[in-house]
Amino acid sequence: MSAGLLADARSWREQDPDATTRAELDELILAAEAHDPAAIAALTDRFSARLEFGTAGLRGELGAGPRRMNRVLVTQAAAGLAAYLLKREPSPSIVIGYDGRRNSEVFARDTATIMAGAGVTTTLLPRHLPTPVLAFAVRHLGASAGVMVTASHNPANDNGYKVYLGRADQGSQIVPPEDGLIAAAIAQISTVSIDELPRSTDFIVADDTVMFEYVRQTATVGRPVVPLKFVYSAMHGVGWETAQLVFEAAGFGTPAVVTEQIEPDATFPTVAFPNPEEPGAMDLTFARAVEVGADLAIVNDPDADRLAVAVPGRDGVWRRLSGNEVGCLLGWRAAERATAGGATDGGTLAASIVSSPALRAIAAEYRLGYEDTLTGFKWISRAPDLIYGFEEALGYLVDPHIVRDKDGISAAVDFLALASELKAAGRTIDDHFDSFADRFGAYASSQVSLRFEDLSQISGTMTTLRSRLPNLVGSIPVDSIDDFIDGFEQYPPGDILRIHLEGGSRVIVRPSGTEPKLKVYIDASSTAGDASERRAAANAVVAELEAGMRALLAG
Hints:
About 40% of the residues lie in helices and about 20% in strands. It is α/β, with parallel strands linked by helices.
């Protein structure tokens, strides 16, 4: 063990204002001084690097040290962001929001006092609120920037820090080169103790006006034609208060709720991971939907920027729709709106490159613009003339005039309106999927997700795959492979492989940007036969590709 490691740990401990993480470091330092190998390894892990500030801001496990989320790291990030904003414009302003996770309010208030101390006009939202409300507030208040303290659907012991830019950036999340400039400012700040940073409590704590304006505007996204019976779960997050107001203002009334998950609870006691995509996460929602005889069910993730939808199938069995299924139905709806009455000014539909190619087919059918982007709404929200965007990970942007980020509440309103219209016509969501397949073709998708404890294994797997690029996936020949590692076409460098296969199907392999996972995205389509035959053909190709990719990655 180096003397420098202990010195770094003691220096960090001395400036840490949090009793919990100070005690954590005290225990590790004491044990490391006694040559405890586990303590030395723990200190090395925490102090060998910093949590990297990038286009997702910060996100990581709570704990002491620069490689964890804690008050020292957040204070340094706030001071660096303040320095960046003051250099960017003469009189910057910022609005700060937070969710219901552990330390979210503490991190938000630390950020507010640092921002105000640096001379940035600062507004703090009044209590824990959904991420879309913060994203809305950046635009609505005309702020230079926004910070949302949230780890979205990450495990319970994580937290994070999302940064938005206003004015010319229209309230979108940061992208390069801004992320690098902010990271450089944070690095410079981190060379001094946070005790030396100026602080002030001269900031505004907003009232409910901003939230109520978000509710008013979001309620205009969709209206019911006939009443719906639906179920809602907040997945132990902060969505319920705002979503309930929006549903009522839009005319949908109050849903039946999943009582066990409706209030914020940072321990997420009923789910292994607070992500509606995870197996078992929606079991309570399904049970409640059956109990009340619901038409459909709506679930937000803990910060309510994502939406999961569940419906009863023709066999009566409830199922969660995939992000691609919801995204394509809402995209079809957006295209109809954009061209209603013969309108020709159109606009652009956008989706991340890992999302279903079906949105491109919709855009072509309606003669609208279309743009593939890198993953994340920081990219989708910046598509020119955007009228709708989605990504397969349950993210939808249905009204860019309100929010320039994914919004699980406005998307819920739009989907509820669709379900109400179909019910009025005596049709179901499955009937609507038949109509979609008849018009655009049937699109099938699947995802292979491999979780790693050691992050180096993810990059190692990608390196191995590049060294042995396949000629076949399963029994399907490979046509071509796009490697984004040094940049590809208009895209900047990224650790992505896109495999085009004979017959038009596609496989994309990439590390997750927010979780310790390697993800494989598989898409296929068919226009042969009726809707049922088209679905069967597309699903058969996806099944073959999924089995083939599992075999490749296992090898």
